[in-house]
Fold this protein.
Amino acid sequence: MSEGCRPHVFFNVFRPYIAGWDSKPFKKKNLKGLIYEGVSKEPFNFTGLSAAQSSTLPCLDAAFGVVHKEKEDKSRRFFQDYMPKPHRDLIAAITSGPSIKDYIHSSDSPESLETYNDCLQAMKSFRDSHLQIVTRFIINMAHQKTGPGSSSKGATGTGGTDLMTFLKGLRDSTLRAMLRTTRGGDGEDASEHLVPTATPPGWVRGDVKRALQITLVFVAAAAGTMLVMRKFSR
């Protein structure tokens, strides 16, 4: 995104088109939504596009046992209503399925624990990068309109979330999910209260071919997004 689109183009040209009916400009005009002819006589009022509507990170959160605080989790569940039903079903299946975290915690394997924490660290780094992009493309651009001394608190995404509070909360939850190298202590780590499992979940090993197919889908989606962003940045 940083290579294919300039912040002022994203904020002023592209972003208004992905805002929802709950965005400030629509609220000021008291617009109630959009009537879809042949579907309903009443207007539909949908929120805007948000990265939280993607099922990728929620699936990873579910797989690695990342538990978010109530406020962030409420927003995440709200955005899941905008996902295709098979995506929601997948998240639910992973959430209710065998726990990787339980298995790692009960395995007494330093190597497995280190690998598990490395995965969470990678997720944390991804969320850090997302925060940096949001700061550059949204927060800083909003400050140019409201003044350099304005606060980022209350700045909303196109999905209506309080951006920095929401994203920092997700990042911090990822850190809290990491397992200690030694057991015991009074920290926030939920691993102290886990119920051990006897065997590793079979789906953790996965199907390499299916994993490659899924990866290719994500790469294709990312490439398509970059092409759109480059078109708007010209």
Notes: Residues 150-154, 183-213 have pLDDT under 50 and may be disordered. The domain at 7-233 is CATH 1.20.58 (Methane Monooxygenase Hydroxylase; Chain G, domain 1). The CA atoms of residues 76 and 162 lie 12 Å apart. The chain has one domain: 7-233.
